[in-house]
Amino acid sequence: MTPCARWALRLTQDRALAKADCVAILTRHRDYGALTLERMQASMRTPVVVDGRNLLDDGACQTTEIIYRGIGKGQFDVPLA
User: Fold this and answer.
1) Is residue 16 part of a domain?
2) Confidence at residue 30, expressed as pLDDT on a 0 to 100 scale
């Protein structure tokens, strides 16, 4: 990817994050790897991330104010009936 294309992608990502209440990651695209937790937390109105592809490190998310839910990671303690 050219430097110009990287800049355009970051600008698009920043616009998408601006004042967002939630980010849903539904595909494992390499460009989503450019998202940093710091950028998400600083840009979003309510930093909630639903990670359907387990792209982000849930341990790293716990060190931020981001509310993170990774699909299939079992963060919820549900009592068995």
Assistant:
1) yes
2) 78
Residue 80 lies inside a defined structural domain of this protein: no
Element (H, E) at 61: helix 58-61
Residue numbers of the domain that contains 66 = 3-70
Residues 27-48 as b/e (b if ≥16 CB within 10 A, e otherwise) read eeeeebeebebeebeebbeebb
Q: Would residue 17 count as lying in a domain? A: yes
Into how many domains does the chain fold?
Answer: 1
pLDDT tens profile 3-49: 655 545 566 788 888 889 999 988 887 777 778 899 899 999 999 99
Alpha-carbon separation of residue 36 from 20, 64, 75, 79 (angstroms): 15, 11, 21, 34
Per-residue pLDDT, 80: 46
Is residue 60 included in any domain, yes or no? Answer: yes
Q: Record the pTM.
A: 0.72
